[in-house]
């Protein structure tokens, strides 16, 4: 029975992964400091005999090392998730993502755990010149502190694979949708529309094109790849094979909620400094392994809105 | 008069840069903790009225911020230079290179200094699939902790350029040769041959191909680019337009020293784990600005051997 250690286990993607691992028969230790994770997301896991939670911070070497003991594989998903306001606290991405990943790798060395699976981001491609963007796209220029810190994490992991005989998989994600979605534009839109259904402020000009993936499709891809770890190190893009504009998704959200708000654009071609105007990943590498997304972006958006409407407590912050 | 701040000012490349900046009429503050830098390398600078030395560690935010006050441009050259033994102390590259670069950037923000020039490495291309390797080569896989930490530094700098309006230039260096050369295979070879001229141990099989650049050619390129900073962020490869094998350079060294040692190969196609078997950079971008190297690799190797023979004190460690 594989013993899986999941950092960020109480997060949106982390908790979906925990559920997926448990249903595949893994023993799972979830590690989380609950800075943004939610106990409610682990309700199903808590009821499972193969799940154990370890409360701890990624910065706490001792707690991390001890919680990891006996694991076969580490799924490193914990990260500073506040991408948008990175410029207000530049040390956050460094400490929680770059140094955090280093501490996970060192805890692995001390515990003689050698397999790691890491959630990175399509933002590492910066303003991609090749779209859809493949894993071996031209060497990108980093435009955000978040993506820089994820790139640093990727680089540390590949160095450990080459230097210490680790086996590593890096997934470069698009934005995720679905149950337990807790931040991002759909969250903001639904929250706003429930309070004020007649108008909707939109960052940028609404033409920003983005690609998304339904979180359970993401987990399925991760489980598929992990079932046969590479000899050394591999990178996989993960995303749907389509994209939409912010305006598309506003249309799907408002029609799902049966509303017709007046849109108030802040202007400009991107949401914020460092926001990538267009992320659309070439996912042929993961698709060649037989994976495909089961939900379209529209279905993912609607699933997300439905979940937010069913779980309004999450909007109260 | 431009006020230049140079980290790693007492190092091999740093001290050559200091001399170059002074002769171009800059005011120069050199910052160094003398962990590997040498006071002797700053002899010429100490005699110049426009030079000031600040002793300090890159990790010491207060010292760094205070020494930087009043500067117009930061040349960030300090780094953990012990590439080969990175795997014995993985935290060294993280602390001295990645976190060090972050601290330099934060000291710049606090001092309102916005121009930064950074020495990175051709090793960030990992095992390049395109040779000669251009700046926009395919997204590489990192194979060493050193290159990973340099890539992290690059990414932080470009993020600061995009996020805070900094202007940045990153130079990806090949290995440097010339006066004040203090570590690398020529150092090891000359040191060994002076003691034991009849045999020479060689890491790998001697076929590793490498490109080098004469340090004063490097400084000339850096000064040229810095005289017209980019609007945001640019990367330049820096190297000679040729390469050699370790065997070539052994031939040049031994014939220059008039010796014929027996070569003892350790075997394998690279010197150590994480060593890149072949680094040869496409330097057409920097050459399009009118720069070219004045010395061939052979001339650079001979200049280096001559300097080592004239400065045997440096071999005594």
Compose a concise summary of this entry.
Two copies of one chain form a homodimer. Helix content of chain A is 37%, strand content 19%.
Question: What can you see in these coordinates?
Answer:
Two copies of one chain form a homodimer. The first copy, chain A, is α/β, with parallel strands linked by helices and 317 residues long. The first copy, chain A, folds into two domains: 3-176 and 213-238, Rossmann fold, CATH 3.40.50; 181-211 and 242-315, UDP-galactose 4-epimerase, domain 1, CATH 3.90.25. Chain A has ten helices and 14 strands. In chain A, strands 3-2-1-4-5-6-11 form a seven-stranded parallel beta sheet, sandwiched between helices. Chain A has a three-stranded mixed beta sheet with strand order 12-9-14. A two-stranded parallel ribbon of chain A has the order 7-10. Chain A binds chain B through residues 86-87, 90-91, 94, 98-99, 102, 105-106, 125-126, 129, 135-145, 147-148, 151-152, 154-156, 158-160, 162-164, 233, 235, 273-274, and chain B through 86-87, 90-91, 94, 98-99, 102, 105-106, 125-126, 129, 135-145, 147-148, 151-152, 154-156, 158-160, 162-164, 233, 235, 273-274.
Quick tags:
homodimer; about 325 residues; Rossmann fold; alpha/beta; 14 strands; three-stranded mixed β-sheet; about 35% helix; seven-stranded parallel β-sheet; UDP-galactose 4-epimerase, domain 1
């Amino acid at each position: 029975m594989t013993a899986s250690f999941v950092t960020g286990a109480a997060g949106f993607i982390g908790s979906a992964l925990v559920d997926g691992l448990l249903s595949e028969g893994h023993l799972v230790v979830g590690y989380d400091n609950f800075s943004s994770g939610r106990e409610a997301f682990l309700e199903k896991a808590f009821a499972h005999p193969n799940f154990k939670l370890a409360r701890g911070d990624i910065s706490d070497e001792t707690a991390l090392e001890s919680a990891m003991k006996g694991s076969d594989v580490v799924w490193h998903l914990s990260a500073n998730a506040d991408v948008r306001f990175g410029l207000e606290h530049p040390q956050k991405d460094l400490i929680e993502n770059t140094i955090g990943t280093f501490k996970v790798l060192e805890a692995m060395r001390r515990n003689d755990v050698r397999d790691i699976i890491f959630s990175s981001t399509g933002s590492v491609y910066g303003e991609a010149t090749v779209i859809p963007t493949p894993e071996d796209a031209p060497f990108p220029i980093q435009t955000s502190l978040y993506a820089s810190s994820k790139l640093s994490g990727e680089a540390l992991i590949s160095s450990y694979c080459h230097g210490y005989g680790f086996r590593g998989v890096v997934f470069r994600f698009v934005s995720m949708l679905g149950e337990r979605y807790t931040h991002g534009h759909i969250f903001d839109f639904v929250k706003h529309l429930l309070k004020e259904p007649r108008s909707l402020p939109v960052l940028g000009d609404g033409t920003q094109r983005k690609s998304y993936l339904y979180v359970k499709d993401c987990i399925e891809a991760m489980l598929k790849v992990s079932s046969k770890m590479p000899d050394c190190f591999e990178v996989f893009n993960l995303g749907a094979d389509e994209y939409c504009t912010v305006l598309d998704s506003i249309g799907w959200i408002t029609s799902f909620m049966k509303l017709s708000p007046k849109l108030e654009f802040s202007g400009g071609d991107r949401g914020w400094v460092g926001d990538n105007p267009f992320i659309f990943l070439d996912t042929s590498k993961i698709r060649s392994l037989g994976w495909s997304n089961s939900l379209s972006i529209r279905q993912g958006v609607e699933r997300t809105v439905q979940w937010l409407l069913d779980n309004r407590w999450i909007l109260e912050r």
